[in-house]
Amino acid sequence: xxxxxxxxxxxxxxxxxxxxxxxxxxxxxxxxxxxxxxxxxxxxxxxxxxxxxxxxxxxxxxxxxxxxxxxx
Length: 72
What we know:
single chain, 4-stranded antiparallel β-sheet, 25% strand, DUF397, DUF397 domain-containing protein
């Protein structure tokens, strides 16, 4: 099965609402694709991006919102 990587040079990026406001730990995501969510480090906008399928990204965001990914 061939996986086609989307062209990311023209997408619109937005900073995650969970990103640290002092310039550290920032990620940006794009909502430009119906089935994929590209994610990149805002400090390296020309660097690589990770691609997540929408259900996987939604599951991750849900876990973050519940606090399920942070140790007690």
